[in-house]
Write a structure and sequence with these properties.
The protein has about 220 residues and is an alpha/beta fold. It has one domain: 2-Layer Sandwich (Nucleotidyltransferase, domain 5), CATH 3.30.420.10. About 40% of the residues lie in helices and about 15% in strands. Strand 1 and strand 2 form a beta hairpin.
Length: about 220
């Protein structure tokens, strides 16, 4: 495969897609994760193949969007994308594999779910972060801070975040007293205090050490 010309990190969102389109690539799949640094719950990943010219306005790194903006954009992404998929790796898988390998598992599951909808292979997979996904037979390009540079990755980041947050809201009802609906499983002071008082639920990652409170 001819080396791709990738715009610099300071490029505005969507410039990567425009550059790849000029190089003849239009079927692009973006993949991102959510919940990697949490103490509780699965790590989620989403994969999105946006239409080359028709997609929702306002796509950006999910961390830069408000919850209301993410909730608004999520169904718009699903309705307008050529394909999308969500995958997860459970707390048990995280403890068994380690968080990095479990994240790759979630990403491969999300990509497969998107491919099942798409019915054919994308021309390239754009991966948020510095690492390629092992065990993936498709051409791929890791992109540091890709969720703020690529619209496909930004869309995936929104889906992964919204889907994971929804599950954490459900887990809050199953395991009351931890505040999971508020902090989504991250290591806030409230969460750490509840863990010290109540102990771990089956959804907590036993391999994770308690750190200073704060959302990662």
């Amino acid at each position: 495969m001819t080396p791709l010309l990738i715009p610099p990190k300071a490029s505005p969102p969507g410039e990567i897609e425009r550059s790849l389109h000029r190089q003849g690539l239009t079927l692009l799949l973006g993949v991102d994760e959510a919940g990697r640094g949490a103490l509780c719950g699965p790590v989620f990943a989403a994969a999105v193949v946006l239409h080359p010219t028709e997609f929702p306005e306002g796509l950006n790194d999910s961390k830069l969007l408000s919850p209301a903006e993410r909730e608004r954009l999520c169904p718009l992404v699903c309705d307008s994308a050529l394909a999308w998929g969500v995958g997860l790796a459970s707390a048990e898988e995280i403890d068994t594999l380690n968080i990095l390998q479990a994240t790759f598992v979630a990403m491969r599951r999300a990509i497969q779910a998107a491919l099942d909808r798409l019915g054919k292979a994308p021309e390239i997979v754009l991966v948020d972060g510095p690492l390629a996904i092992p065990g993936l037979s498709l051409p791929q390009k890791p992109l540091v801070k890709g969720d703020s540079r690529s619209l496909n990755i930004a869309a995936a980041s929104i889906l992964a975040k919204v889907k994971r947050d929804s599950l954490m809201d459900e887990l809050d009802l199953t395991y009351p007293g931890y505040g999971l609906a508020r902090h989504k499983g991250y290591g806030t002071a409230e969460h750490v205090a509840a863990l010290k008082l109540k102990g771990m639920t089956p959804e907590h990652r036993k391999s994770f050490k308690l750190k200073s409170p704060g959302v990662q």
